[in-house]
């Protein structure tokens, strides 16, 4: 079947066929209307190249009718202008992953511009696909305009319609639009009832090749229907020849998925139907479709290297519905559903003071350094990884996390950790995610298991499989490049309490990133969501801090605010100072982290917390102030720990754990 031939003739088509059949003698040598247009266009182009500009005949336009002004006339012309190359572009391709790629259907307002046999409306789309036993259930429109048809009738037909505006031209769809496309299409396809006939997704841009292909390749990659970008591109090209024919789009796909493009992968030539439409009937260059704006090539490299900071926004926003589903999973796995408002469920330490210091004598603790980075949980899924910030917002990052069987990818594995920036040299930085806890693995909660078991599994289940796959890919020449991922991953180390002195005096000073204290972790503790009274943090006295909301009142007063049970609380008699030459109004409405200057009895702004949208709770403020008042210095802390490790509970386990570590084994579990 010729997909460009309408199976259902319009009324005016039928009239024309009957009329010409009776009155016009048949002549097989008469050229078609399209052939005439092409011949005349070529003649005009040759004449334009041959004749000097001054000798070209002037075109005289007809006088305007009384009811038609220049603005209205231009609107009509632009509104009904055919997309360049649309007439000869094939209508739609073969199904790929339950998706049907197509050029944009045009409604009846374009009938005057489209000759008989070339019309392609949604009525004809439905009929053509029904002949091929395809039933459409969802339409995804990727054009950057609303002029081609009205979507108001789709709801009446029970069809789901999704509009994602993509500019076209040389501008690839942005990552947020890709996330919306993949999520919505996957939800529609995978949530269909097996008892009902399969419904397909009809996807179109203007011609159904570049933007449509770009989105479908992303979908195939994230749903594991293609093992590489090359395979996904080839599958789309077979379904919709010649496939994606813009080099920028192909390069962007390889760059996004951190894959090296083989020299055997060649960008197809621009189709003839697109090349022949570069000029209109007057020999003038046609504007590009969808009124896009020029786009900088993805191959261009910035001249200056940008310095990494903790305030950098990582990853891409996900659709609200997807974010809700991911939030729901985290809350269910940690059993925080129904516990007040939805909020970040990660475990929060409390400041060390002379009261909770006694916990070190009652329970067995290990210690680690407190990195001055950004707190994130990390959710590993087959379609990518999701950073979860303290505002409980999710952003997708393109990374691979294979399971230890080296075949599957992690499915809903939840990690906890912090993002730091290692300064390797004055010209080189590396972003690294330090994992210090494993909460769930492949949808199975580990929260109730003791910390030392969870910590041990981080290496076996997450870090080692990545390292093994990376080495294997390097040896076998696989296209994926781990070194192009947005950050590196490693497990954070914990040390026996007896080594805290070396940790403070030797390890922390030699770190390649900032650290502001220590964290004491109960070795046998379960994972406790939100505030964990047994998880202790000690900061250098001058670095104890509180996160305030800074505001400027109507009277010009500078105010520091906290939250008290979710409500804003003004902290009277608390003053803050900023650096020299800084205008405080620039900080109004922002969360500022402040340390306390005991000599001047006021707070000092250290930085703006771009990763937070709310200040500390008043209860946190009280604990920090108690820690400041107690003034547990490094000397006091080391003296206390020196006494603690001589307790029988510590002496025996430290000796046992030390022997196990020397043999490369996990420290012995405590008998409960």
UniProtKB/TrEMBL annotation:
UniProt gene name: LOC110804970
A single GO BP: 7-methylguanosine mRNA capping
EC number: 2.7.7.50
Locations listed in the record: Nucleus
Gene Ontology terms for molecular function: ATP binding; GTP binding; mRNA 5'-triphosphate monophosphatase activity; mRNA guanylyltransferase activity; phosphoprotein phosphatase activity
Domain Tyrosine specific protein phosphatases: 180-251
Binding site for GTP: 375, 390, 416-418, 537-539, 607-612
Pfam families documented for this protein: DSPc (PF00782), mRNA_cap_C (PF03919), mRNA_cap_enzyme (PF01331)
Database matches in SUPFAM superfamilies: (Phosphotyrosine protein) phosphatases II, DNA ligase/mRNA capping enzyme, catalytic domain, Nucleic acid-binding proteins
Active site, per annotation: 205 (phosphocysteine intermediate), 370 (n6-gmp-lysine intermediate)
A cellular component term, taken from the record's GO annotations: nucleus
Source organism (scientific name): Spinacia oleracea (Spinach)
Protein name: mRNA guanylyltransferase
The entry's keywords: GTP-binding, Hydrolase, mRNA capping, mRNA processing, Nucleotide-binding, Nucleotidyltransferase, Nucleus, Protein phosphatase, Transferase
PANTHER family registered for this protein in UniProt: MRNA-CAPPING ENZYME
Domain Tyrosine-protein phosphatase per the UniProt entry, residue ranges: 104-263
Swiss-Prot/TrEMBL catalytic activity: a 5'-end diphospho-ribonucleoside in mRNA + GTP + H(+) = a 5'-end (5'-triphosphoguanosine)-ribonucleoside in mRNA + diphosphate
């Amino acid at each position: 079947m010729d997909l460009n031939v309408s199976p259902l003739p319009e009324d005016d088509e039928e009239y024309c066929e009957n009329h010409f059949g009776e009155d016009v003698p048949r002549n097989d040598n008469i050229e078609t209307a399209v052939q005439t247009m092409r011949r005349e266009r070529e003649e005009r182009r040759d004449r334009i190249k041959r004749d000097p500009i001054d000798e070209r005949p002037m075109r005289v336009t007809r006088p305007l009718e009384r009811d038609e002004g220049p603005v209205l006339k231009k609107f009509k012309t632009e509104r009904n202008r055919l997309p360049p190359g649309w007439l000869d572009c094939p209508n739609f391709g073969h199904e790929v992953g339950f998706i049907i790629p197509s050029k944009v259907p045009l409604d009846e307002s374009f009938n005057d511009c489209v000759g008989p046999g070339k019309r392609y409306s949604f009525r004809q789309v439905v009929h053509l696909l029904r002949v091929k036993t395809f039933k459409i259930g969802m339409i995804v429109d990727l054009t950057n305009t609303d002029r081609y048809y009205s979507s108001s009738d789709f709801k009446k037909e029970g069809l789901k319609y999704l509009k994602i505006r993509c500019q076209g031209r040389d501008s690839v769809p942005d990552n947020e639009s890709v996330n919306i496309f993949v999520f919505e299409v996957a939800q529609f396809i995978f949530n269909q009832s097996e008892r009902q006939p399969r419904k397909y997704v009809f996807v179109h841009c203007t011609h159904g090749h570049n933007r449509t292909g770009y989105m479908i390749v992303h979908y195939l990659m994230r749903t594991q229907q293609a093992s590489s970008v090359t395979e996904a591109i080839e599958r789309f090209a077979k379904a919709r020849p010649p496939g994606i024919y813009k080099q920028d789009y192909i390069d962007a796909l390889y760059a996004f998925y951190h894959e090296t493009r083989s020299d055997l992968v060649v960008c197809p030539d621009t189709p003839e139907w697109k090349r022949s439409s570069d000029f209109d009937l007057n020999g003038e260059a046609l504007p590009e479709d969808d009124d896009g704006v020029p786009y900088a090539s993805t191959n261009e490299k910035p001249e200056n290297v940008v310095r990494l900071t903790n305030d950098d926004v990582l990853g891409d926003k996900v659709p609200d519905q997807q974010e809700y589903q991911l939030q729901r999973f985290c809350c269910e796995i940690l059993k925080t559903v129904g516990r007040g408002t939805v909020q970040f469920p990660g475990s929060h330490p409390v400041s060390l003071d002379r009261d909770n210091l006694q916990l070190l004598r009652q329970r067995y603790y290990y210690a680690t350094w407190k990195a001055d980075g950004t707190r994130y949980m990390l959710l590993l899924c087959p379609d990518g990884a999701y950073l979860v910030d303290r505002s409980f917002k999710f952003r997708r990052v393109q990374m691979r996390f294979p399971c230890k069987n080296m075949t599957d990818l992690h499915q809903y594995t939840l990690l906890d950790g912090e993002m730091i920036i290692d300064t390797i040299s004055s010209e080189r930085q590396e972003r690294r995610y330090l994992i210090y806890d494993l909460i769930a693995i492949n949808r199975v909660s580990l929260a109730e298991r003791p910390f030392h078991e969870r910590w041990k599994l981080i290496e076996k289940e997450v870090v080692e499989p990545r390292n093994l796959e990376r080495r294997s890919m390097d040896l076998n020449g696989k296209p994926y490049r781990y070194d192009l991922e947005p950050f590196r991953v490693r497990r954070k180390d914990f040390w026996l309490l007896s080594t805290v002195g070396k940790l403070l005096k030797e390890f922390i000073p030699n770190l390649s990133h900032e650290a502001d204290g220590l964290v004491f972790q109960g070795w046998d503790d379960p994972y406790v969501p939100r505030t964990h009274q047994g998880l202790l943090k000690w900061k250098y006295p001058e670095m104890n801090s509180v996160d305030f909301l800074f505001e400027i009142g109507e009277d010009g007063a500078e105010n520091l605010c906290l939250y008290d049970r979710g409500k804003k609380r003004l902290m009277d008699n608390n003053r803050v100072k900023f650096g020299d030459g800084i205008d405080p109004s620039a900080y109004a409405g922002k969360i500022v982290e402040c340390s306390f200057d005991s000599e001047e009895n006021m707070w000092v702004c250290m930085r703006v917390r771009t990763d937070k949208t709310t200040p500390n709770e008043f209860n946190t403020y009280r604990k920090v102030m108690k820690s400041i008042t107690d003034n547990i210095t490094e000397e006091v802390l080391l003296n206390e720990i020196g006494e603690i490790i001589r307790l029988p509970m510590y002496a025996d386990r430290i000796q046992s754990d030390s022997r196990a570590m020397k043999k490369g084994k996990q420290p012995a579990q405590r008998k409960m």
